[in-house]
Amino acid sequence: MRTAMKRATMGLALAAITGTGIGVGTASASTNQGTGGQSGSQGGSGADSRAAGGQNGSGGNNEGSGGNNEGSGGNNEGSGGNNEGSGGRTGDLYAATNAITGNAIRTFHRGLDGRLTLVGDTPTGGTGSGTFESSANGVVLGGFAGESSPNNLIGAEEFLFAVNTGSNSVSVFRTRGDYLDLVGTTATGNHPLSVTVSRGRVYVLNGGTTNGTGVPSSITGYRLSHSGNLTPIPNSTRPVSGGAISGATQVSFNPAGNVLVVTEKQSNTISSYTVGSDGVANGPIANQNAAGSVGPFGFTYTRSGKLLTAQNFGGAAGQGGAASFNVAKNGTLTPITPTTVKNGQSDTCWFVLTDNQRFGFLTNAQSNDISSYTVGPNGELTLLQGDAAHTDEVFPAVGPSILPGDLTLSRDSRYLYARNVMDGDVSAYAVGNDGHLTQLQRLDNALPNGAIGVAGS
Fold first, then answer.
1. % of residues, the chain, pLDDT over 90
2. How far out from the chain centre does Cα 69 lie?
């Protein structure tokens, strides 16, 4: 099923951060598509080159005249079409509405300047829970080989994966610019919270219930075809280490695709599993958290396989931070940072890493802000800014926290996006060469407050 989503005037109020203050207006844009549909050639020597030095540098997303040059019959935006030279590429931001009446992927078009325009919703074929899920990576962008967002490990953007927490299923879409084609929806275990893909294998974290507590959580595996269809892997379901009190949060493959990791914030455990050529997970191994660390939550990897985790300390005031680990082939973890590198903020939960592997960004749910870290070549973490950016128009928060949640970066890491859980705002930031953030835009009430996940291209 293909759902055509045109960028039209959607009546979405936004607040754009400008040099003179916060201006409130209406997001409006249009797509003039020729009769040839979205056709053209994407390639050339400059196309989406993600070198290790590529954060706004010569090794990054440096696209020459051959990169994403779409012909006159294709996605012709304005007078020049989507013909992007050295200025980079446009992209999209995806999040799941998680609605009880029918889950959908809400798509936003990303312009060359990093600002977002609402495109529309594409049904997943399943339903959501309609409530906040204390989880990470419920929406993942990637391909047969692996993930590109929120964990950018190999750069493929062929498929979008999304969990349906209410109907116990996972949906797969093929991405086509601002369009999504639903490939299919496949049954999972009870209350799926997180999904991951690597080398033609997909694993889903089944929370058992909201926030992964009260009922034992598990993981289940599937084979992914090149067309995007999922087939269950026999005998692949495995428990997590913490049982019914795990608070299981995220499942993700390591870059090599031979180890799965699940963070368990309530049992303060990180489960790991080895994965063989048959795709079956073996384990779990119950790895203890780093000394003095509490509440492993969202995580990401360096491309060399170092595990970088957010530590939320149960939301205790001023105790949030991050910790990193080596991951052995047998699944055992050893701390790189002997203890949590704290940021002075509260409830640190979600973690993303720039393409050049230099900067990590984490949201602090109870203090309504983002912290930044530098990441060393061996996974060492050093605090850059405890309060690197605010995620709400009111700071410090007055009354209940608005709970900044999932984070994602654009494909070239020039832009960072944060989704607020309670008010549905989505904020956009420019990422400087030194890792500092500058707010570009805030889309007010862009998502329902029960939305889940965010991924971007």
1. 68
2. 27
Name the token pair of 419. 């989704």
Of 115, 229, 113, which is closest to residue 161 (Cα–Cα)? 229
Q: Topology of 91-456 in CATH? A: Methylamine Dehydrogenase; Chain H (2.130.10)
Closest CA to 395 of 431, 368, 415, 414: 368
Q: What is the pTM of this model?
A: 0.82
Confidence of residue 449 (pLDDT cuts 50, 70, 90): confident
pLDDT for 31 equals 34
Q: How far is CA 300 from the centre of its chain?
A: 10
- Tell which residue, 75, 124, 134, has the closest CA to residue 95: 124
pLDDT one-digit tens code per residue, 81-98: 333 333 478 999 999 999
- The angle formed by the CA atoms of residues 40, 81 and 157, to the nearest 5 degrees, is 55
More confident site: 399 or 220: 220
| 270 closest CA partner among 321, 334, 315 | 334
Q: Which residue has the higher pLDDT, 436 or 72?
A: 436
Average pLDDT value for residue range 175-204: 96
Give whole-number Cα distances, 12 to 75, 85, 107, 404, in Å.
23, 30, 13, 20
pLDDT at 415 over 90: yes
Which of 94, 95, 142, 87 has the alpha carbon at shortest distance from 111? 87
Domain ranges of the chain: 91-456
Residues 239/220, Cβ–Cβ less than 8 Å: no
Higher-pLDDT residue of 298, 45 = 298
- In angstroms, the Cα distances linking 339 to 267, 289, 335, 351, 382 are 17, 9, 8, 17, 12
C-alpha 375/C-alpha 385 separation (Å) is 13
Is 156's pLDDT higher than 90?
no
pLDDT 10s digits, 270-314: 999 999 999 999 999 999 998 889 999 999 999 999 999 999 999
Nearest to 408 by CA among 8, 52, 10, 108: 108
**For residues 6 and 11, what is the distance between their CA atoms, to the nearest angstrom?**
14
The answer to whether residues 138 and 194 touch, using CB atoms and an 8 Å cutoff, is yes
